[in-house]
Amino acid sequence: MTATPPPLLDMRGIEKSFPGVHALRGVNLTLQAGEVLALLGENGAGKSTLMKILGGAHRADAGTISIAGRETLFRTPHDSRRAGIAVIYQEFNLVPGLTAAENIFLGHEKTRGRFIARRHEQRRAAELFRRLGAEIDPDVPCRRLSTAQQQLVEIAKALAFDARIIVMDEPSAALTSHEVDRLFEIIRDLRRHDIGVIYISHRLEEISQIADRVTVLRDGANVDERPIANITRQQIIELMVGRELKDEFPRRNVGIGAPRLKVSGLRRGRVVRNVSFEVRQGEILALTGLVGSGRTETVRLIFGADQREAGEVQLDGKSLAVRTPREAIACGIGLLTEDRKLQGLVLNHSVRENFGLPNLDWLAPRGFVQQRREREEFARYTTTLRIKVPHQEQRAQHLSGGNQQKVVHAKWLARNCEVLIFDEPTRGIDVGAKYEIYLLMNELAAQGKAIVMISSEMPEVLGMADRILVMHDGRVTGEITDVAHATQEQLMQLAVA
Length: 497
Known about the structure:
Layout: E1 9-18, E2 21-31, E3 36-40, H1 47-54, E4 62-67, E5 70-72, H2 77-82, E6 85-88, H3 100-104, E7 111-112, E8 115-116, H4 118-131, H5 147-160, E9 165-169, H6 177-192, E10 196-200, H7 204-210, E11 213-218, E12 221-227, H8 233-241, E13 259-268, E14 272-280, E15 284-288, H9 295-303, E16 310-315, E17 318-320, H10 325-331, E18 333-336, H11 340-344, H12 351-356, H13 360-363, H14 371-384, H15 401-413, E19 419-423, H16 431-446, E20 450-454, H17 458-464, E21 467-472, E22 475-480, H18 488-495
């Protein structure tokens, strides 16, 4: 009788604590060769910490890691990589100024004498891209590649050193539906080559398409583990949040009033071309379309982050001469940017300082920050938004993605803006945190605010919007007013028009 081979990966009793936080509490995880394991949980559940331990970025306080039955210890990322493990983080680990080939072989270059064998690297990179079905020039600097292409470079890096275990953290967060389909084809090919894949995602609709098994964490501990065929989407949600969520998108009944924000003939080169729309009191207007359609570029013009070549912006019938974000904020317009790490937060500053930055006019009326008042105000929002932070001096970079997002929300809510623009408000955060943000948006609408929501997630658009504008190639290509009867297919047809 043939003995059953040991798991490709077996993590047992993993413990990890940081100052003020018990991040992992005896977590177990197994992965078989040729398996796609979905690792799920709310932001702060411990997923990223567990994967950083696997990747050698953190050391566990207790527990064991075995690769193909052999117990091992990772002191550095190099140890993990040498064991055949590749971690593709949500923020890619690429050097923008280096070429695709140079990034693939960075740290393990092929040399001849004292010189790097660049032709060999270029040929090998081209072979890897052909295997992935990617049309990428190995000599192109990574800063010139799209998000999807950069992700393929990361996967090629993993294949270049024969990784047996590949971790993908939110791999589809910034991809179009077509790019996601292509990613899934690549993952299925990896599975056929007996490579184990750990897939972390908050897009639950993807899990049933690609995963073989699901492991759910909550508050740093295992909650459940099942084959994907034996669990429903609703069960996954309830396991993640620890409570029943009857409606993924909370219902609301808000009276929609007169127009508040009115945009006419907005133009900037070819990225925004003659865009006009209005948002009414108590309304959530969704701007959707494929990545690159001009949605973010449009709201940046409204916010003064970019200069418009033509067009007019009015608030409550008054024309606004907004040239900078500072002027937009003074007029009552707030923009929650899609990239919370680069544009929404100063990561090496405390969460308290981040909260205070757009509110210094009333927190520092005489040039000195009233820190007691700042702490009291921020404490109020940590309660109402359920921000998980050990103390207010915690640096923003150490929070989970969902809690970073909530800090961004808090600082703008404190300004009491009349127009709030949410650019991808739930990207990379879990269903529980999403629900809280949806409740918040509904509450703001009930207060008479005008809400603009940019989202690439069609279920979110259909579940939250009162009205939908679809953009393509810098133009508005369609408007949907009967959202209750709209379909994803209808949105996609307008998005590719």
